[in-house]
Design brief:
- Two copies of one chain form a homodimer.
- By secondary structure, chain A is α+β, with helices and mostly antiparallel strands.
- Chain A is 34% helix and 22% strand.
- In chain A, the strands form two sheets. Chain A has an eight-stranded mixed sheet.
- In chain A, β2 and β3 form a beta hairpin.
- The longest helix of chain A has 33 residues.
- Chains A and B meet through β1, α1, β4, α4 and α6 of A and β1, α1, β4, α4 and α6 of B.
- Bound molecules: adenosine-5'-triphosphate (2 copies) and magnesium ion (2 copies).
- The site of one adenosine-5'-triphosphate (ATP) has 21 residues of chain A, from α2 and α4.
């Protein structure tokens, strides 16, 4: 007879840690460093703070394969009453709003704590002091897996005698530095390339120190919280928006709850589809809601989403970064206009580097980023790879493989449709695929012109 | 100021449906058929029932891109008081036990319901009658996403006037049959190959009918629930086992809660590590638990896991299946002995087919299965691909590419470490990688001998 039961989200991710990228000790060490570093960057550059981040990875003196990871940042800190849930409750987050951040699931820090708890059994240590707070707070936390809630083993606080603000996270996990080393170092390096305003220092178990000093004091404008765009709104989201809105009429609802809808646009929209502007949206029947959702999806006159709440890397910075790491003879980059995916605004950026010190290979070298996070694994199941390897006929642009060609793709937005909670590859979403393709064709055309010009000059020289 | 909140598992998977394989209408149609068919097979062959399964996919008459999917089975049915949670509560399942089943997450049916709810807005319809029940039960269910609980819009029951038992699931979703068609048909065909005891009929939106008649009445022994093996037990699992066990002493705990541990083995184990057999495991300190977990992991005298609770396809059936689909000139297959991964017993099976009607290609054709589920996507991020394309030097076995070579890999066990909840590829787990490699070398050696013999015969003929 079948034994039915339900389990908590903590138990789900404890049983299925491979789903979150923790599939073996080397991957777990990589993923743990990532999750903590991504949290540190979200706590700084999304809040107008020039990041100063220190990462320390050391071997435990007695237990083999046990590593202690410490990540320290000068970010906004965490209000003490939220710390236990932030590190001890799966699906708890401050990033469930519509804003471009690296984090989005409410899971990362908890996976690190869970993995440490199951492999080593020690609590995570948190030290934090929010901006403006006069105290420093310290915690030792474990997760009650069955109930999905934090177990606070220790907490303390003391007066702050400096103006330090930020967070220190210390955890002990089973890992494998030998196998993880190359990817961890690559990950931090590729992070530094797109955050030239950050100081990042990493001490490794082999006692190597990697220092990425900031090369600019100018922080890009931080991403801002926004409203959903009407395109791609599904029925459930529409129902949720209506439920949580204080708007009394349909017209007020459209203007207040969406971006890209002003009074004039709202009136035209309602007139075109025969909606009553004064109707209370809470009184709509299921059929009327379906009609409204369908109309919102197809109406083409809504203003395209603005880019100003998003935070792309920028074409100049992409070119600088490619120049610095690859030393190519030619480099080009483009930042596309925003598009909409299920109500979310997305910007795709594409960079191309050719020749110079790039070694020839059978496929383009692909450097992927999503919300400024470097994606290093699962390349072949990423939508970018599909575009670069299948949708583009490179011979049309004058490229014969093997060729010295590198492509950088950055997708940023208020939601990244990752294929997995380990954030390694982006799903096959049609609008993203076509944006990458169009951006790639733009930079490839520039390469084609460059190669043609180069060939003409070489022929002239020969004569 | 950061807005902290927690969300329910239903809201998590609603917001991140790409994580579960629902990344576009074509994938969603494929995934929906899969999830329902996998549930129907679990309800039959895991319970000694020869499966009779009907799949119907029809276009909605008025709404474009809306499809209605119906899956009917003759399985064990669902007790009516569990139906609402089974289809309306995310992370609710009867497969959270240690038994080889296709399902494992408690999510599949709910994802189909969620996706239908957000794209079309109609409830899922369930009709079910458990074996031995005298009534048939009908439900219409939607999911309260915020609270992660079912909304029962309709329920009814009536006396059963036949001995039918089983379940019918009917749902309306947005899909794209044009783009999904090839993969859905391939998925059902590859399912039928490894379930030759099943009748599967599928009616498609193009009014095609695919019929897979059973070619045998003999069902393999159903998989059975088992206990964890001591190898790979982590601290958390050890604590949970102790907590839920009614054993009064350590000796009783070891014998009762694990497979592969008899009285003699338990005594030897405890003596070797200096444990007191009469100690109540509930009194162990954190340090003693760590010592016990470590000892359980390393002690080499525990009996290897038995294969009898698992349900592999079997070498004969793999060869038959490869022969039938590929018409090769040579075929070989091997079923490996069970190994342990984190307390779970796993069996890897490898099949190889060469020549004949197989078209030559640059890489081996790879047919992947996990717990008898065909895996069609994300091939290049699967551990099998890594072994087939990187770990094996095919020239050593007499293979020069392009070559007409196909490999089948089946991994079965009480837990499959998938990379994602969409069940498309298996994570890089070291013991699985080495098992696939060893199995592959076994069948490749047989191919090498065959090719050598063939070459000798051809040379003899030439003289
Ligand atoms: N270093 C930090 N500084 C400030 N806040 C932090 C820090 N680390 C974690 N947090 C807070 O804890 C919350 C939970 O972090 P966690 O990594 O689990 O989820 P997330 O970052 O929101 O999403 P994701 O799972 O995608 O990483 C964050 O939303 C953030 O509010
Ligand atoms: N056709 C069916 N016949 C009998 N029981 C079913 C059927 N479909 C679903 N169930 C029951 O409903 C439960 C939930 O199904 P669901 O697909 O959501 O999860 P699962 O199959 O347990 O795991 P997974 O998410 O990996 O598919 C199953 O565990 C099973 O007990
Ligand atoms: Mg995070
Ligand atoms: Mg299922």
């Amino acid at each position: 007879v079948e034994k039915f039961k339900s389990i908590s989200p903590a138990e789900f991710f404890y049983r299925n840690k491979e789903i979150a990228g923790f599939s073996n000790p080397a991957r777990a060490l990589y993923q743990s460093v990532r999750e903590l570093l991504e949290n540190a960057l979200d706590a700084t550059d999304a809040h107008g703070i020039l990041p100063d981040i220190e990462i320390t990875i050391t071997r435990d003196k007695s237990k083999s394969f046990v590593y202690r990871i410490t990540v320290k940042d000068n970010g906004i800190g965490i209000p003490p009453h939220y710390v236990p849930d932030a590190f001890g409750r799966v699906l708890f987050s401050s990033k469930y709003v519509l804003r471009q951040t690296r984090g989005m699931f409410g899971l990362g820090a908890k996976m690190v704590v869970l993995y440490g708890q199951m492999t080593v059994g020690e609590p995570v240590e948190i030290i934090t002091s929010p901006i403006g707070s006069r105290r420093v707070y310290a915690f030792k936390i474990m997760i009650d897996i069955k109930e999905n809630k934090p177990i606070v083993l220790y907490k303390a606080s003391w007066p702050k005698n400096s103006d330090w603000h930020g967070t220190i996270v210390r955890v002990a996990i089973e890992g494998d530095w030998g196998r993880a080393r190359q990817r961890v170092i690559e990950y931090v390096r590729r992070t530094a390339i797109v955050t030239p305003y950050a100081n990042i220092v990493m001490l490794t178990p082999d006692n190597e120190v990697y220092v990425y000093r900031r090369v600019t004091e100018s922080l890009p404008p931080p991403p801002r919280e926004t409203k959903p765009h009407p395109h791609g709104i599904d029925l459930e989201m529409l129902k949720m928006l209506i439920k949580s809105s204080d708007a009394k009429t349909l017209e007020e609802f459209l203007i207040k709850e969406f971006q890209g809808v002003g009074k004039v646009t709202a009136e035209r929209f309602m007139r075109q589809y025969g909606f009553d502007p004064n109707r209370d949206p809470r009184t709509f029947t299921q059929e009327e809601l379906e009609k409204l959702a369908k109309a919102l999806k197809e109406y083409s006159e809504f203003r395209a989403p603005r880019a100003d709440h998003l935070s792309p890397i920028g074409a100049e910075l992409i070119k600088l970064g490619l120049q610095a790491i690859l030393k190519p003879e030619f480099v080009e980059a483009v930042t596309r206009k925003p598009v909409v995916y299920e109500g979310h605004a997305l910007i795709v950026e594409v960079g191309l580097a050719y020749g110079g010190a790039i070694p020839p290979s059978d496929h383009p070298i692909l450097l992927r980023y999503a919300n400024k996070i470097p994606l290093l694994y699962d390349e072949k199941s990423d939508v970018s790879w599909k575009v670069v390897a299948e949708n583009i006929d490179w011979s049309y642009y004058g490229i014969q493989f093997p060729a010295p060609l590198a492509i950088l793709v950055h997708v940023c937005g208020t939601k990244i449709p990752y294929k997995g909670v380990g954030k390694e590859s982006i799903a096959d979403v049609p609008v993203i695929e076509s944006e990458i393709e169009n951006g790639l064709r733009q930079v490839a055309r520039a390469l084609k012109a460059y190669l043609a010009k180069k060939r003409r000059e070489e022929e002239l020289q020969r004569k």
